[in-house]
Amino acid sequence: MKTNMHLINGAGVAYANGNHTNGHNGSNGYNGHNGLATLTMAPPMLTPDIAPVRQSPQRVYDPNFVVTDAYRESLPDLQNGPASLIQGSPVAIQQVGIHNFRLPLRYASRNGEPLLLETAVTGTVSLEAHKKGINMSRVMRTFYEHKGETFDLDLLEEILHDYRTSLGSLDAHLILRFNYPMLNESLRSGLFGYQYYQVALEARMDRFGAVRKFIHFDFVYSSTCPCSYELSQHAIMERNIAAVPHSQRSVARVSVELNGFLWIEELRDLCLEALHTETQVMVKREDEQAFAELNAAYLKFVEDAVRLLHEQLDPEPRIKDFKVIASHQESLHSHDAISVLVKGVRGGFTPEVDPSVFATLIHR
Question: What is the rounded CA–CA span in Å between residue 303 and residue 17?
Fold first, then answer.
């Protein structure tokens, strides 16, 4: 029998000229249609590719290694890679950057003494849909480049414009958070102590280059409930029973958008003039008695607190817009009493508040 061999896709197939016309009756199992028998051969053995031998990397740090410009250029940079590396939807991101980057920065004070304060930086920029990512280290390096300068809202505006160039962003956003010390005098004893105020300086730049500047200031005070005071007086006068009204540590977060320069100390003075009952630092017995009298003289519900602040902030010409969030952390209840009030400027602050904000109004 003559056999023709062919290689099809690497498999050997043999065709044999058989004498059977009907392979169904054949005992050899070949398909005998038209006298053609088909025999499938096993694939030929192929020589596998020889894998290159690679040595394991050395587990050693070389302190003498010097990075050259050529070596630096060879380093992979996936974060600033092409759009083909984007994972997920290729859409624009409104804010991307860093949060809680800390370093000491210098600030001016109203008395002329510069203050070097630990500062937490939040810096974000927008990211266009066709870009993989941003150079986040650039956000941090900027602050070290300016570390010898005195930081204020005007310097933040300058940095935002730098971001537009160096990071190629359209929108940019910066927030500096720090505890600002002021030396306060006690009510009657003449002692002095440092009160620390939580402050944030914020600057936002939109895609048209317009910059808005804000100060966020936390004022901590005591609030004595007017209702509780009246009920206590009733028990004393009608039944000769001692009673004490409930009061609690309270916080007002005052956010102002400026159209002129305003010292942080001036914002504190506005809050103090509105609420009067700021918590004390250094206290002797005469100061504690004075504080009790002060609270009785300036009773306030949480609704009163935000309206009193409105009364002081609204006429200040350097304040374009403001928002006040007050939280009275009640000693009577297991919950807080809260209130939010805005000036009502078109396109300005809105009364909406993320619920997580109230958790940040607890000062210890």
Answer: 105
Per-residue pLDDT at 342 exceeds 70: yes
Q: At what angle do helices 302-313 and 264-275 cross, to 10 degrees?
A: 130
The sheet that has 211-224: what strands, in order across it? 150-151, 93-107, 115-127, 172-185, 192-205, 211-224, 247-258, 319-329, 336-342
Given the DSSP bridges, would you call strands 93-107 and 150-151 parallel, antiparallel or unpaired?
parallel
Cα-based torsion angle of the residue sequence 124, 125, 130, 135 in order, rounded to the nearest 10 degrees: -60
Q: Are 95 and 145 in contact (CB under 8 A)?
A: no
Rounded Cα distance between 265 and 312, Å, is 15
Q: How far apart are CA 153 and CA 251, in angstroms?
A: 24
pLDDT higher than threshold 80 for residue 11: no
Of the candidates 117, 265, 266, the residue with the CA atom closest to the CA atom of residue 182: 265
**The model's pTM:** 0.80
Contacts of 129 (CB under 8 A, 6+ apart): 90, 91, 92
The pLDDT of 263-274, averaged and rounded, is 98
Q: pLDDT tier at 48 (50, 70, 90 boundaries)?
A: low
Residue 84 above 80 pLDDT? Answer: no
CA distance 287 to 295: 12
Tokens of 53: 């031998």
Residue 49 phi/psi, 5° resolution?
Answer: -65, 140
Report yes or no: 184 and 192 within 8 Å, Cβ to Cβ.
yes
Give all domains of the chain, ordered by start, each with its CATH number: 3-40 (no CATH), 63-177 (3.10.270.10), 210-364 (3.10.270.10)
Q: What is the mean pLDDT of residues 151-161?
A: 93
- Return the exposure string of 251-263: e unless at least 16 CB atoms fall within 10 Å of the residue's CB, then b: bbbbbbbbeeebe
Would you call 270 helix, strand, or coil by DSSP? helix
DSSP string, 140-191: HHHHHHTTTSEE-HHHHHHHHHHHHHHT--S-EEEEEEEEEEEEEE-SSS--
Tell me the DSSP string of 78-92.
Answer: STT--GGG--S----
